[in-house]
Design a protein that fits this description.
single chain; mainly alpha; 4-stranded antiparallel sheet; 19 helices; 4 strands; 67% helix
Length: 432
């Protein structure tokens, strides 16, 4: 799941002020607002707002989103990057060119994708511009500047949205959420207010990523009210928030609402499955949900592993083994079904061992111990196969712990068991 993205191409400003000139313009415009007569005129505040916007844009240079690197090289003349390097952001590769006031990030197509200001004229330029526009609105008693004010505030909202996207790309989810929130609020404060549903969703999503669950819940609830549901992911994320807050009934209710509206959404289905597993409620309905999930994704091996786990928890041994095996048949590189079978037999052996320890009839004791050894031997093949399949060394070590114990039990039954014990014991002690 990723951020909702609206691709836009920004056109270059006809003329960009230098940071020094932009700062002087702000100081001059701010001085005018200190004059009571001038402060009563909306034009004075519009000039201040415009000056702050110029100050915001000044450190960005002549670049604009979507510009080709080659044409920017021509336009920027003698302004050369001090360094250039390859970086990875959100899983994508970019060329980062560093300048005095900003960094330009070019995508694989050599188009400018991100502008990062490193030396802003004012850190709060957008905040101050918004305040100035609001003052202009207050003093515009005739409404003659309403159109200019509306356009200005909506431009600020778009700038906050761009900052949110940048922070998301840089992995600063808290900063992204804050800027998306500002974008939403600015849009709503315009004389002709608008609600950007995509930005509402992005505010919730990045707040969720930063684990600010109160903020995330608030924005996701707004998404539901606005019917902006991202194919059901909003329901799944709300359920996750409720689960993390131990609000199990709320989680169940929102998942059921989501399933009704989006029966093919896998996040919702898995969320419901996890709920039923944890609560132990309605296993028949649970398997019905699993059937829906498998119809939607017949090649998803993990769904059969989940089915096996449910059967295992319910004490359905043969059904559990069949489902675990099916997961590996669907994806021979999927080790967890085999691990599930191994653990099932291993735990069965432990239960038999405990049962034998309380049995005083010798014949019955011997019969139970025979079952115990059979269960242990049954665990070997799935564990060994899973050990060979997995590429995760931590998982290998965990499997080795089981195999070490099993082979130790049978170490006197033949050289293969003695060798197995030495092999897996060494892995447990020394790692891979």
């Amino acid at each position: 799941m990723a951020l909702a993205v609206l691709l836009t191409i920004q056109m270059a400003d006809a003329q960009v002020k230098s940071p020094a000139d932009a700062k002087k313009a702000v100081e001059s415009a701010a001085e005018a607002t200190a004059n009571p007569k001038k402060a009563a005129k909306p034009a004075t505040w519009l000039k201040l707002a415009s000056a702050y916007m110029d100050a915001y844009n000044a450190p960005m240079g002549n670049g604009w989103i979507g510009a080709n690197k080659q044409e920017l090289t021509f336009l920027m003349g003698n302004e050369k990057p001090s360094s250039s390097q390859t970086v990875t952001l959100a899983g994508e590769t970019y060329t980062k060119d560093t300048y005095k006031n900003m960094n330009y990030y070019f995508n694989a197509n050599q188009q400018l994708a991100i502008i990062e200001v490193t030396r802003p004229v004012y850190k709060d330029a957008l905040d101050q511009a918004l305040k100035a526009y609001k003052e202009a609105e207050k003093t515009d008693v005739k409404g003659s500047k309403k159109k200019d004010i509306d356009a200005g505030i909506k431009n600020i909202a778009s700038k906050y949205m761009e900052l949110g996207m940048n922070e998301y790309m840089f992995g600063n989810y808290k900063g992204a959420a804050e800027n998306f929130e500002k974008s939403v609020k600015a849009g709503e404060e315009a004389p002709n207010p608008v609600i950007d549903t995509m930005t509402v969703y992005n505010a919730g999503f990045t707040a969720w990523l930063s684990q600010d669950y109160a903020m995330a819940e608030s924005f996701f609830k707004r998404c539901v009210e606005l019917n902006y549901l991202e194919d059901g992911e909003v329901y799944a994320k709300l359920a996750d928030i409720y689960s993390k807050q131990d609000r199990k009934e709320d989680a169940k209710a929102i998942l059921e609402d989501g399933f009704t509206a989006f029966p093919q959404n896998q996040s919702i289905i898995i969320g419901l499955i996890n709920y039923y597993i944890e609560s132990g409620e309605q296993p028949d309905e649970l398997f019905g949900l699993l059937d829906v999930a498998k119809q939607n994704e017949p090649d998803n091996a993990s769904l059969y592993y989940v089915e096996g786990d449910i059967h295992n928890k319910l004490g359905h041994k043969e059904e559990a083994i069949a489902a675990y095996k099916k997961s590996n048949e669907i994806n021979p590189d999927y080790e967890f079904g085999l691990i599930g079978i191994g653990i099932l037999y291993y735990n069965e052996a432990l239960e038999l061992q405990e049962k034998a320890s309380t049995e005083f009839d010798n014949a019955k004791y011997e019969a139970i111990m025979a079952e115990f050894e059979t269960a242990l031997r049954n665990a070997i093949d799935p564990f060994v196969t899973a050990f060979n399949i997995t590429k995760d060394n931590e998982i290998k070590v965990s499997i080795a712990e089981y195999l070490k114990n099993i082979y130790f039990r049978f170490r006197n039954d033949g050289p293969e068991y003695e060798e197995g014990y030495k092999k897996y014991s060494s892995i447990v002690e020394n790692g891979l």
